[in-house]
Write a structure and sequence with these properties.
A: 256 residues, alpha+beta, B: 353 residues, two-stranded antiparallel sheet, 13% strand
């Protein structure tokens, strides 16, 4: 770091010949065959982008489960759900996109449980008309190969210790996945000898679940969490941990 | 002068009262870029506010994201993993260098040194590339999340980062030489824009402008946040109180940032980058103060138990610094205005909000 207060002597060599030598060197390096210019000649060639570049959004229609997570998390409300044709006569509930409102934050991609959303490397999104940027689901669809980062679908898991059996998740679930089941033997004895209501816990039918996480949002006690689950439909078993009590098994396994 | 004037670097007006060529009084007028940011925050839930914080200051987005996120973490007592904090520090310091470089570019253009402008913008490109490798966007990062950062850094990042730092430190020495040996720059910066230390403290000026007046206040040192206590760095202070001192402070800070990034890359612990965040936010209030490239940034959040904040208050360093402009400008010639105001590093996105 040169001292700010002290002036350095600059000789003729530094004043006249060094700049000339530098510019000559640059000229030779950039103009000769195989030379690389200092800038990227944009329309012809483009910068290399990292894999996780946040460009235009793309939807893999086959993977979409219609859970509306993306539409709920979008800060600009640029995603809207609608029924659309997959291309083979089957229609599905999928998000439509208004790219003119999108701010490329990537929150929807993170929220998507089935990795159906992907941010592509396309960034030249200018059009003549604003309406050209409003896409129906099949219009902004991409092929599954373009979105390689797949992970297993997360499913709601219960933390038994936090659950009070209030049933908020059951009421929030749009697909009848959750069934509130009472546990036998958990009713408390009242002073007058009668028994109170038995404790209830939610049971999940994972075959119907679309991983929308509405139950997790609805739970007032943070007893549910979305976790990736390898056994999706083949082994729907919920672990129930009950506080050990006299004359009772500490662990029960309940099959749905 | 303004709102459209080459020296403003944003939309704001400076009303100057002159006696001949000498400035008697000045009055900054801001508010052309008001977007109702604090009200906007009340209509969005906590994770959705992070991408809008990018738009607070378009030159130093990462630091504003970080202030907001730390304020939320303070409000709800959310723990951040150590690796997450380290990556945040790296991102913040890269952002600080990039922000100072864009300041250097615009400041030098004001003073007629276009070569430095081109060089500074070229170096900034390297750091923008580094941030792009971290989070996938070039300007609006949306990288810090409540409880950590959105994704771990790529495996090639440390090597890429060290390479860029080596090149940058070598080149910055050249630029210092290029800029400071220029007689024109010396005349226009030394002894111009004198800001007395007492004035600076009374008017609430923070950041490089305060440290250029010889007051060693740096929140990274005086009130450490994030992982800054782990690192060894100097607080850049200059006693000149003029434009040149403020320039020197920023140059020194760039060297310090380089050293902090090196230390962080060396000490980087393994582990997760995103902590556990509750789905439901209780009542409470909290705040965070951080050292922005421009001064002290402050975020206050009041939570009322719903998924949206009840009130958000932002303290912008430039809003306060520009209010101190009349006391700096008084007594100087009208041709000194670009030099003095340029040395304060204006950013209207955050001051108008």
């Amino acid at each position: 770091m040169p001292d700010s207060k002290k002036k350095r002597r600059v000789g003729l060599l530094d004043y006249a010949f060094k700049p000339m030598w530098i510019s000559l060197r640059t000229l030779i390096r950039t103009s000769l065959a195989g030379g690389k210019p200092n800038t990227v000649l944009y329309p012809e060639e483009k910068l290399e982008l990292p894999d996780d570049f946040r460009g235009e959004l793309g939807l893999v229609m086959d993977r979409c489960v219609g859970c509306e997570s993306c539409a709920r998390v979008c800060p600009n409300k640029c995603l809207d759900m609608m029924e659309d044709d997959l291309g083979n006569g089957v229609s599905k509930w999928m998000p439509a996109l208004d790219l003119a409102q999108c701010m490329f934050c990537g929150l929807c991609v993170e929220a998507c449980p089935s990795t159906a959303l992907h941010m592509t490397n396309r960034y030249e999104t200018a059009t003549q008309d604003r309406n050209d940027k409003i896409f129906r689901p099949h219009e902004w669809a991409i092929k599954p190969e373009e979105a390689p980062d797949q992970h297993p679908l997360p499913y709601p898991e219960l933390y038994e210790i936090n659950c009070t059996g209030c049933g908020a998740c059951d009421r929030a679930c749009p697909h009848d996945v959750i069934d509130m089941m009472s546990i036998p033997g958990t009713a408390k004895k009242r002073p007058n000898g009668t028994f109170g209501p038995e404790k209830k816990i939610p049971l999940f039918d994972y075959e119907l679940c679309v991983s929308c996480a509405l139950c997790v949002d609805a739970c007032p006690f943070d007893a549910l969490e979305m976790l990736p689950r390898s056994t999706t439909a083949s082994d729907p078993v919920v672990q129930i941990d009950i506080q050990p009590r006299a004359g009772q098994q500490s662990n029960q396994e309940v099959s749905v | 002068m303004g709102p459209q004037h080459p020296f403003t670097h944003g939309l704001w007006t400076l009303k100057v009262k002159v006696d001949g060529e000498t400035i008697i009084d000045a009055e900054p007028i801001i508010g052309y870029l008001h977007r109702g940011f604090e009200k906007l925050c009340e209509n969005r839930n906590y994770p959705q506010i992070v991408p809008i914080c990018d738009r607070l200051c378009y030159v130093a987005s990462m630091s504003w994201d970080h202030v907001y996120v730390s304020a939320v973490e303070d409000t709800f007592d959310i723990k951040v993993p150590v690796r997450g904090e380290y990556i945040r520090v790296i991102a913040l310091e890269i952002q600080r260098i990039a922000s100072h470089l864009i300041w250097l570019a615009s400041f030098m253009t004001d003073l007629g040194n276009l070569t430095a402008f081109l060089y500074a913008m070229r170096e900034r490109e390297m750091f923008i590339d580094l941030l792009q490798a971290l989070c996938g966007a070039r300007l609006t990062y949306n990288y810090p999340r409540i409880g950590g950062v959105s994704q771990d850094m790529p495996r090639t990042f440390p090597r890429q980062c060290l390479k860029a730092l080596d090149l940058f430190e070598k080149r910055l020495k050249e630029y210092e030489y290029l800029i400071e040996e220029s007689e024109v720059f010396r005349i226009r910066s030394e002894g111009v824009g004198y800001l007395r230390p007492s004035d600076a403290m009374n008017l609430g000026v923070t950041g490089p402008a305060l440290r250029g007046s010889g007051v060693p206040v740096d929140l990274r040192r005086t009130e450490p946040y994030s992982a800054y206590p782990d690192f060894d760095f100097e607080v850049a202070v200059e006693k000149g109180c003029d434009v040149f001192a403020r320039y020197r402070v920023r140059i020194k800070e760039m060297y310090e940032s380089c050293s902090i990034i090196r230390q962080a890359l060396k000490k980087m612990p393994p582990g997760p980058v995103l902590g556990k965040v509750p789905r439901h936010f209780p009542r409470g209030e909290g705040y965070a103060r951080t050292e922005d490239p421009r001064g002290e940034a402050f975020f206050y959040i009041q939570a009322d138990g719903t998924d949206r904040p009840y009130r958000v208050k932002i303290r912008s360093p430039i809003f306060v610094t520009v209010s101190a402009a009349p006391s700096i400008l008084r007594g100087y010639k009208i041709a000194d205005v670009p030099s003095i105001m340029g040395s304060l590093d204006m950013c209207l996105g955050e001051s108008d909000r």
